[in-house]
Protein: Gfo/Idh/MocA family oxidoreductase
Amino acid sequence: MKRRDFIVKGSLASSAAFYAPTVLGYGTPSANETINVGVIGTGDRGGGLIPFINQIPNMRVVACSDIIPFRLSSGLSKVEGKAKGYEDYQKLLEDKNVDAVLVSTPFSTHSQIVTDALKAGKHVYGEKTMAKGYDGIKLLVDAAENSSTIFQAGHQYHSSRLYTHIVDEIKKGKIGKITAFECQWNRNNNWRRPVPDPKWERMINWRMYREFSGGLLAELCSHQLDFANWVLGAMPEKVMGVGGIDYWKDGRETFDNIHLIYSYPKGVRASFTCLTSNAMGDYKVKVMGDKGAYILDYVKAWYYPEGSFEKEVGEVDGVSGATLNWDQGRGIPVNFDHEDPSKQALIDFKDNILNNTLPISNAKTGAMAALCVQMGLDAMYGNTIVETDTKMVKEIVG
Structure:
């Protein structure tokens, strides 16, 4: 029986259901079974995830693939030579010893490589943004729905127990009616990787070229778009945005700064800013409601209630709030023990395979974020307001 018979279905009005784990109906392997992983793309991200896999019980890297020789060597070195190396990812997919693959290749290749891996019978963890272009997104969703294996989209904050806790609190009404999101991801560097030989420029710095990349929106802001979709259980209705190559005049094609506003149902607006010329504030997600707000960074969160909270507590203890656990400008720290989000996402991937459960970050939630990215790119590149094509979205995500 095909996996599509078990995947949650429904209209966009019920898209919140996409964010709930679902038990699938095919056979369950032993909980003690070791998952043999092949890593396709051993650059900064793929290579950076290998040490996490090494730390997870019942998970091990047995194969690596990369078309750049020194990237492949670097990936293999992180498993101390205990994995096979393949220049051609198709050869890795033919390896019967590989149960699952992690796809961390340039954005433009995600759809084809993931589709090939699913057709080869491999479980797949596909890095964000899930796929490039409307056709690529649909191709991957169709492949996942018609596969008997697990596909997990690589939006690791979905797996963060801190982020999950915050989403639960928001949905319980902790900050009241949501009115806005303010998101940023600022850096002060040129975002380039060193190139030992000019012939590798476009392969290593693919993020700089529109043919391969969605730029800052796809590589960074996509995580925050995914979070907004998750909290609201909805897709935006339209987006406007601007960007430019205004600081790094180095031949890049993707923008070095972007500023977008997405309009969601019920009047909720979400802004996204990403700079490469100033790092003030770094990464931040702010969710604002009529009773308070949550502020999140990579691994921490704060609750900021509306009203005179500091004043009230100061009056109670008589020393102007001296004992209050309050961070100026942020609010009350949320104390919550949790694992690194990237490591937790890989643990969840393993558990989804062993327990045959549909990942909370799956092909359809990944598609929603990818569609938001493509809409934003269309808005910036076309200097226009892009409205959601609801017919196309329904065809892709149900």
Q: What stands out?
A: Confidence is low (pLDDT under 50) at residues 1-16, 25-29, 316-323.
